[in-house]
Write a structure and sequence with these properties.
This protein has about 260 residues and is α/β, with parallel strands linked by helices. Helices cover about 55% and strands about 5% of the residues.
Length: about 260
């Protein structure tokens, strides 16, 4: 992979898009994970203002510390970086107390996890509106277009997606080139939406390397019957999630009314 060329291409793309949009900078949620670290660094390299929001909701201290270590690293290496904590825990707790609990525990916990992501999206757009900034998304290709591992109108609600054409492994290559903090590079990927230590692999049932393999196999037109053992298991995991989450990857369905009826 021609890492430096890709970095320069993304930075130029960000710069051009921002200038054409007549906005003044970027706002991004910093989670302590690899994707938000890379995207915020790419945004910082444009030279425009970058507002980094750390938005804890009953967050693990390790995630908070990684997030702030990265923000401080950005401040040391780039100009026009601002970091801010917006504690959304009281807002989330108030939401939980105002709504009824479902008997379907899985659906209940998943809905609450998605609520966390949507509260953060709302916060990002609040600050974007105050400052005339763009909300920069952190989804990578396998998450956004492979298994749909994001929250609709949560972390999927963004203005621009700088790394959505990069596989997770490619994001790691860029992180290494940029000198992103090692604690972030070595941390197990997690969405941090459940208030526990579960990783993305725990939730999905396959690693990102395995999912990338399955995504490429599907793009070649292969199907589950082409494989056996662990490969077949991984492909089936990928295929099931891909089709279940297609609604996240396509435009909102619009009921078109025949023109002669109007």
């Amino acid at each position: 992979m021609q890492t430096e060329k890709i970095i320069n291409h993304i930075v130029k793309w960000l710069t051009d898009y921002l200038e054409k949009s007549k906005q003044k900078g970027f706002v991004i949620g910093i989670s302590g994970g690899i994707d938000s670290a890379v995207v915020s660094t790419l945004c910082a390299k444009t030279g425009f203002p970058v507002l980094c929001l750390e938005m804890p909701i009953h967050q693990a201290e390790t995630q908070v510390s990684r997030a702030w270590n990265h923000i401080e690293w950005l401040k040391k290496n780039f100009e026009k970086i601002e970091g801010r904590t917006v504690n959304l825990t009281p807002v989330y707790d108030e939401f939980v107390s105002a709504t009824e609990k479902s008997e379907n525990e899985y659906a209940y916990l998943l809905s609450l996890a998605n609520t966390r992501a949507r509260l953060r999206m709302t916060t990002l757009y609040y600050y974007a509106g105050l400052n005339n900034y763009l909300v920069a998304g952190t989804g990578n290709k396998v998450e956004d277009f492979g298994v749909g591992f994001f929250t609709k109108y949560g972390d999927g609600g963004v203005d621009i997606s700088p790394i959505a054409d990069l596989m997770k492994s490619e994001v790691y290559e860029i992180a290494e080139f940029l000198g992103i903090n090692q604690d972030i590079q070595k941390a197990a990927p997690t969405d941090g939406l459940f208030g526990d230590n579960r990783t993305d692999e725990d939730q999905i049932g396959a690693s990102y390397d395995e999912l990338e393999w399955a995504m490429k196999a599907a793009e070649r037109g292969q199907i589950a019957k082409d494989f056996s053992g662990r490969e077949r298991e991984v492909f089936e995991i990928y295929d099931k999630r891909h089709h279940a989450n297609l609604h996240k990857m396509i435009p909102i369905p619009v009921c078109e009314i025949p023109k002669e009826w109007k």
